[in-house]
Write a structure and sequence with these properties.
Elements: H1 7-40, H2 46-58, H3 61-72, H4 77-86, H5 94-118, H6 122-130, H7 135-146, H8 148-164, H9 167-173, H10 183-191, H11 197-230
Length: 232
């Protein structure tokens, strides 16, 4: 199996997994807060926030990547601040690939979690409040267990989207072998050279296997979460 892929191809596989995992981890806390706010709170600008969250789904990925480059590049205000203050460089680094993947995956995660929250009976949350629980404890002990399947679904969708992200990533961090070359970028690069079809097919197979494995794991975890919520 180790001889099936070359060193650069294995590097692309490992980097894609690394980027997808970090993109999902970084998106999760913001996704929970955003989904809860859109599902439960009424505030001025709610429609604008909702549109902003879903903007990466309708914009060309290259546009999203270019905006990230302007904002988080070394000459950008945020990117320059991060580099000067924390020594964190995002443009043309794997960290930037994780950021780009997180931005593109964020709408899918928020949508899945928001639908799960909207399906929860508000009376259950209100009952917890009448028993003295504040909003935070109500969310942790009542809402979160009930929306666990939706959270898992959102995480899997985000992971799958991050694994397959291409346009925003290649625009923001380029396609540097061993540094920013993810699976989609590696497949694209192999298709541009004569005789690269074999390597591209092997990476496509790896992508399919990882995606199916993630979906199966999500289904198993979601079923366990549902049984636990029902007390089975």
């Amino acid at each position: 199996m180790m001889d099936w892929l070359g060193p650069e191809e294995w590097a692309a596989v490992g980097l894609s997994l690394k980027v997808a995992v970090w993109a999902t981890i970084l998106s999760l806390p913001f996704g929970l807060v955003t989904a809860y706010a859109l599902a439960r709170w009424e505030f001025w600008g709610r429609s604008f926030i909702n549109g902003l969250v879903h903007l990466p789904l309708v914009l060309p990925p290259v546009v999203t990547g270019y905006v990230l480059l302007i904002v988080f590049g070394r000459r950008g205000r945020v990117g320059g601040f991060l580099e000067e203050t924390f020594g964190l460089v995002l443009a043309f680094r794997w960290t930037g690939a994780a950021l780009a993947a997180a931005v593109m995956a964020f709408p899918l995660m928020v949508r899945a979690i928001r639908l799960a929250i909207e399906a929860v009976d508000v009376n259950l949350e209100e009952a917890a409040g009448t028993l003295g629980a504040n909003r935070l404890w109500t969310f942790i002990y009542v809402t979160l267990p009930l929306i666990a399947p939706g959270v898992l679904a959102g995480c899997v969708l985000a992971f799958a989207k991050a694994m397959g992200e291409f346009g925003a990533t290649i625009t923001f961090v380029s396609n540097i072998p061993g540094e920013t070359q993810t699976l989609p970028s590696a497949i694209y690069a192999l298709l541009q050279v004569p005789g690269g079809e074999g390597g591209a097919i092997r990476l496509v197979v790896i992508s399919v296997v990882v995606a199916i494995t993630a979906l199966l794991a999500s289904e198993i975890l979601a079923r366990r979460a549902v049984r636990r919520v029902r007390g089975e």
